[in-house]
Amino acid sequence: MNLRVLARLVQIQRVLLRHGLDDFVRATHLYRPLRFLFYLSPGIWFERRRLATRAERLRLALEELGPIFVKFGQAVSTRRDLLPPDIADELAKLQDRVPPFPGSIARQIVEAAYGQPIAAVFSEFDEKPLAAASIAQVHVARLADSREVVVKVLRPGMQEQIERDLEVLHSLAALADRYWGEARRLRPREIVAEYEKTILDELDLMREAANASQLKRNFAGSDLLYVPEIHWDYCRRNVLVMERIHGVPISDMDKLLAAGTDIARLAENGVRIFFTQVFRHNFFHADMHPGNIFVLIDDPRQPRYAAVDFGIVGTLDPRDQHYLAENFLAVFDRDYRRVAMLHVESGWVPADTRVDEMESAVRTVCEPVFDRPLKDISFGNILLRLFEISRRFDMEVQPQLILLQKTLLNIEGLGRDLYPQLDVWNTASPILREWMRERVSPWQLLKSLRQQAPELIEAARALPALLKGAVQRARGGTLRMQIDAPAIEALQEEVRRSSRRRDAITVGAAILLGGLVWLGVDGGVGWPGWVLTAAGAIWVGVGWRR
Fold first, then answer.
1. Per-residue buried b or exposed e for 144-177, using 16+ beta carbons within 10 Å of the residue's own CB
2. Taking a C-beta distance cutoff of 8 angstroms, is the pair 503, 496 a contact?
3. Distant-in-sequence, close-in-space partners of 449: CB < 8 Å, separation ≥ 6
4. Burial environment of residue 369 by CB neighbours within 10 A (0 to 12, 13 to 18, 19 or more)
5. If you count DSSP H runs as helices and E runs as strands, how many of each does the chain have, helices first?
6. By C-alpha distance, which of 136, 45, 124, 42 is closest to 98?
7. 287 catalytic, yes or no?
8. For 370, left (φ over 0), alpha (ψ -120 to 50), or beta?
9. Residue 115: which region, alpha, beta or left (left: phi > 0; alpha: psi -120 to 50)?
10. Strand partners, 278
């Protein structure tokens, strides 16, 4: 662990103490003794700010610590079933009310990105931010043709701040990987590496614009989700310009109810959007906290979601997507044995796992929550129980699925606030079953064949020549199979190492035996026997360690 990482850890604890969050420091095993040094520092007591509530102190500490900590606060703020109400309410402010940076600096960033005065690009630009988040903030503007847009501007210094905290996370993951018994199963290094890709992608607003365009194309003509139009001519790596939408924040239940919004339909549509994105499109919005979701209520009986902030999106490997869908359907059908077998087939648990034992464990978790509305279910608690099962059956964490799990928890938190009576199982099951039927339908097979036709034709053209060459080499005795795999090389090295170890042990054992025989038949001079015995023992020991 280098000095930069150590200094950051010390700074984190100092911020927690200054905001009166002593319990968090006492709960931190790493560098816990340092808290006594902080208590002896006069600066801590002069700077210490005792605010009205613990929730305010926690929110301010997360804001001061930077974007990675703010995002953590955003993620947990949607889980009111797992947090005290005061903390959930306060952390919800992190969704779009992070303290902004000055609008004059935003203007300078925009002008530097375009290489011209802001008046040459926009007929209006409001320096007062419309909303501010951990990575960027948003300003209202008008294009020269009077179309109203929002201009998203990346916060200055983000790259350096995030890279510093990622270095801390990598160092902690390395320590965990080395000293923590659960590291092999929980794979902390891979989790941090997966998170690093996600958070660094957020720093490129051109990537976010591309994500928005893809999502808009996926839902073209749909009455489920509206995605704002991207104005590509005005997008840069640190500036994004898109259509401004006028919707009701999904957290503003009073306004939605006053307008006569069909809340039950809205909640069901949220589940449909999630499963459609994950399984039909394999491209899902992975940052669906309330600050990023609005509701269009032009027709309150047919409310429509509108999404913003597309910095984090997720996709799944087709194999993982298939196993997830199969798992969901097996749970919907209460086929717990199928769930257990799928975990073995996918390699998520060891091949020697007892299917009957895992079936019983999954049944114990899932059976009590069936046929219950969302208000009586906590997927957060279910996940905790499933983590206990995963530990028991030595299940490895799948880093590629963590983003999906986070999104699922966000969706559940939204649904719980929106319409607690929602029956998740009955809403999701038809969507997933329809997708599975489409995947195995003849029409889908024909579509896949048509898409792959050019590759198949090209392969067919090359096949006769390849077969003829192979037959000729086989007749001439020159056909060879070339295998170039790291696993084969590692196996060969292990065989060589074992051979050297065996030879060393054999030679050492022979010398040791010779020494013992010498001592047994020695008639007077014993030291050569002792020397041979010691040398043989050392040689055998060296051989074992090879």
1. eeeeebbbbbbbeebeebbebbbebbbbbbeebb
2. no
3. 456
4. middle
5. 23, 11
6. 136
7. yes
8. beta
9. left
10. none
Question: Could you count the other beta carbons within 10 Å of the beta carbon of residue 141?
Answer: 22
Confidence of residue 249 (pLDDT cuts 50, 70, 90): very high
Nearest Cα residue to 329 out of 402, 401, 422, 431 = 431
Residue 419 burial (CB count, 10 A): 19
pLDDT digits (tens, 9 = 90+) for 253-310: 999 999 999 999 998 898 889 889 988 899 999 888 788 899 999 999 999 999 999 9
Among candidate residues 336, 318, 319, the one with its CA nearest the CA of residue 327: 336
pTM, 2 dp: 0.70
From the CB of residue 317, how many other CB atoms can be counted at a distance below 10 Å?
Answer: 12
Q: Which residue has the tokens 């993951």?
A: 173
- Tokens 């011209």, residue? 116
> 544, exposed or middle or buried, with CB in 10 Å at 0-12, 13-18, 19+?
exposed
The reported pLDDT for the residue numbered 490 is: 60
Which letter does DSSP use for residue 116 in this model? S
Listed in sequence order, the residues at least 6 apart from 366 whose beta carbon sits closer than 8 Å to its beta carbon are 331, 334, 336, 382
pLDDT in tens, 407-450: 777 777 777 778 888 877 778 888 888 888 877 666 666 666 66
CA distance 149 to 243: 5
Which residues fall within 8 angstroms of residue 519, CB to CB, at 6 or more apart?
Answer: 526, 529, 530, 533
Extract long-range pairs of 375-382: CB within 8 Å, 24+ residues apart: 375/416, 375/420, 375/421, 377/424, 378/81, 378/82, 379/408, 379/409, 379/412, 380/79, 380/81, 380/82, 380/409, 380/412, 381/81, 381/82
Q: Quickly tell me which residue has 């923590």 as its tokens.
A: 180
Rounded to whole angstroms, how far apart are CA atoms 59 and 24? 13
Query: Contact 263/257 with Cβ under 8 angstroms?
Result: yes
The encoded tokens of residue 540 equal 């055998």
- Residue 2 CA to residue 75 CA, distance in Å, equals 30
Q: What average pLDDT does this structure show over 237-243?
A: 96
Task: Categorise residue 20: left if φ over 0, alpha if ψ from -120 to 50, beta otherwise.
Answer: left
| Residues 532 and 515: beta-carbon distance below 8 Å | yes
Helix or strand or coil: residue 148?
Answer: strand
What band does 30 get if pLDDT is binned at 50, 70 and 90? Answer: very low
CB 101 within 8 A of CB 148: no
Q: Which of 145, 201, 233, 287 is labelled catalytic?
A: 287
Helices (H), 276-335: 318-332
